[in-house]
Amino acid sequence: MSVEAREARQPWILLSPALTAILLLLVVPLIFILVYSFWLRTATGADIAGFHLDNWQEALTDRFYRDILLNTLKISAITTIVCALMGYPAAYFIARARGNKAILLLLLMLPFWISYIIRTMSWINILGVSGALNTFLLWTGVIGEPVQMLYNQTTVILGLVHFLLPFMVLNVFVSLDGIDTNLEDAANSLGATRWESFLQVTLPLSLPGLAAGGLLCFVLAAGTYITPLVLGGPTDAMFANLVFEAIITQLNWPLGSALSLMLLAVLGVLVMIYNRYLGMAQLMKGLG
């Protein structure tokens, strides 16, 4: 074997463990799900192998699924916007902190040490009829009887923000921490105020981190089912809840497979559109 051929094979040899893992853990399961989505579940509970379009026809034409999909995208978008508005100031504070940056990052990472389910269910003890907030308001005399604060779309968004905010802060922090502060000093020395230097220097340079955090929060929010299951009401179900209901409760794996692939396809298209107009490459090109 020639030296050129050996050198050409070396990258593939080094990548083979990662490519094998992706093939076995991602590609093969997706193929199984795709094949299973064309099977047909009978009234007796048996699955008929074959190429049937009934599941896809139901998923694509039933208005019930379309409305919940749109509601999922709306909740995910609102959650992403709230995370951006709350996460950017926190990330900026951590990035510009002096002496205690490591401690602040440790505090930011602490929520990841606690189970996501436990963090979500903790809101029941806070916002429930006999929770801490109602107890406090009753004690102070602000309200005369407990207020129902749970099981609505607002609490679903609140739970998602609680879950996803650290992801946004970390992405924005990495972007802000890589900005040379001398650029801000140079803008100030040229007559710009601190607010003007932030708008014209810091904010544009931190947009890639904000875009990455926004994309991550949106995709994770659209794919979650625990938060709406625990904190939402009957009308606040998200699309992942339909997949969970079809597979776990109804044991209708073919329909659940079709629904999961439908959500994957919609998110994939949105990610491509997002990357086309707001992706890091476009942001860096605009800043160049």
From TrEMBL:
Keywords: Cell membrane, Membrane, Transmembrane, Transmembrane helix, Transport. It is found in: Cell membrane. Belongs to the binding-protein-dependent transport system permease family. CysTW subfamily. The keyword Transmembrane helix applies. The keyword Translocase does not apply. It comes from the Bacteria. Residues 69-274 form the ABC transmembrane type-1 domain. This is ABC transporter permease. It comes from Marinibacterium profundimaris. InterPro entries: MetI-like (IPR000515), MetI-like_sf (IPR035906). One of its GO terms (biological process) is transmembrane transport.
